[in-house]
Amino acid sequence: MARMPEPSKFTSITDMGWVQGDAGTESERGVLEFSSEALGRLDPELAAFWHDVGRQFRSEQFALTMLRKFLPQIAERFGDEVGTMRFSATPMLLSDNGKYALGPHTGRVERVLAALFYMPHSQANPELGTSLYLPKDPSFTCPGGPHHSFDKFQRVATMPYAPNTAFCFFKTDTFFHGVEPVPGNGQQRRLFSYILETAK
Length: 200
Prior knowledge:
Blueprint: E1 11-12, E2 29-33, H1 36-39, H2 44-57, H3 60-68, H4 71-78, E3 87-97, E4 102-105, E5 111-118, E6 131-135, E7 153-158, E8 165-170, E9 176-179, E10 188-198
Antiparallel strand pairs: 1-2, 2-3, 3-10, 4-9, 5-8, 5-10, 6-7, 6-9
């Protein structure tokens, strides 16, 4: 946390073209990828630190560790193909500001699993964690892509945004998650995100 880059080093997810549908307040989420270009904007010491972090999280060992956590789900989704599949890991830093909110969604079609490592300075705002939703229409599913309106879903839980906390989940067509609107300004949320997707 002491090495967290300043907000100006992050790029909004709307500028990166990551949002489909109503962008709303999604522009308040900044991303710092561990690419040479993004890390090149940092001071050399910070760049070296995050480059090493990114290298470790891109390792085959870490990917296999995560995949083993979801063996039943992987077998159900991919069947016998999993033995020949290739995966791509993407670690990144996220910085959420102001009235950021993200409508219920299931993630990209290629996504296999994700992990969010929360990095707050205190336990003062547990409500800033990721929320889980059920659609009001029980038959509704989404293969991935768009963010949906909150009014079509019921929030069933919110993961506490607390120190030393991580939230990991497997992507399905029915696992809807998002971020609830936060009243007022000045709230900040810092996360380390790990995403594993199928590779072409």
